[in-house]
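call fold(seq) -> tokens
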Amino acid sequence: MVLEAGILILLGVVGAIMANMGIAVFNDGLRPVVPENLEGRMSRKELSVTAFAMSFGLVIGFGIPISIAGGILLIHSILLGTDIIGLSLNKGKVSTALAGLIGGLYGAGVYFGLQFVVSGFEKLPLNFVEGFNLVGAPVVVSFMVFPAIAIALQFGVKKGIIAFLVAALARQIIVFLNTEQLITIGGTPVVLSPEGIALVVGMIFLMTYAIKEKSEDTSLSTLASLFVDRVNRIKKHVWILMVSGALISAAANYLIVAGDPISLNLLSEGKVSEGAIASFAKAIGFVPLIASTAIATGVYGPAGFTFVFGAGILSPNPLVAAIAGALIIFAEVWLLTYLAKFLDRYPGVRASGENIRTAMTRVLEVALLIGGANAANAIVPGFGFFAIAGIYLLNEAAGRPIVRMAVGPLGAIAVGIIGNILVLLGLFTPPQ
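ret:
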């Protein structure tokens, strides 16, 4: 427990320092904004307000509720917070040190605070933790559809439908093989993840379509030549990025953090290998987006391309995980120039980055809404569905002050609190 807390405290320190210095931020949307301040076109105050507006809602409405539901910290809970902390303070030795201190306190607060909140929920008259765990249930199954959605957005609905049908068929074949125990090694049945295989199949379709869009321009790479100074800036700070990668990978090995909701829910169910596969698949999908924004802005991500999560999960111990995480970040940074040339050569792959992000967001919006509704209805039968439907539609009518991904989880928490009030008033008897 001491080591786990220490890792998250150090991660908070490093994350806030990197954000303060403009070396790395976790929010993909913030990455293009940071150079505006570094190069004098935006004040630090404006940057601070922008960071808060873009990240705070995701911490409160997305990161924390998903973490509570799965019992594992979603990395967004920490690194989006350190983005805000680091970018809210001016640059300078004293300010950077202060950012690190506040970031460390924040990391400790998130680690111990999550445990405190879950323990507090369990002591309420209506313990809704078990019901709230249903929030993430649809995420694992729904997430496998995102490559088909990305294909539909970029290459047309017909190709998206084909990828969806083949992925769905692959999933059902794996379910059949697992049920009949047709795959064995040394007489021991091998159980594969149906959702993991479907996700891999969808990603193969997406990458195949993307690579077919090949640039005919044989001149010097546009990305590599235009942004060479910004790539060199990232390479200059590779050492602190390696520290960040090491800490994240070690934390993933302890199973105290996860990089995305699907791997988090798989890990919370004890499906470690499936969680690692899902983590790697997500990382592959995000390479074009993260690489493009890093090359163009000179600002990296604390978790790099996010391969450090899968490496950490599969490592035999935290020390090996830390070494692997550091080496992975080092390799990623030094490959940026080659990735720039590759992305220029295959513009379809570069364009897929934003479509993948959009597809993932839409899938999570639907999955978390369904999960939130199921959880709320398990906590207070009947009223739960009514409350989530009302909260969602009122949020839409109000111009979406709460991001759609957060409506389901926050709504389920609200129903849990209301359910406890009803129990105290004698208006509701908890289901046995």
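Residues 347-379 form the longest helix (33 residues).
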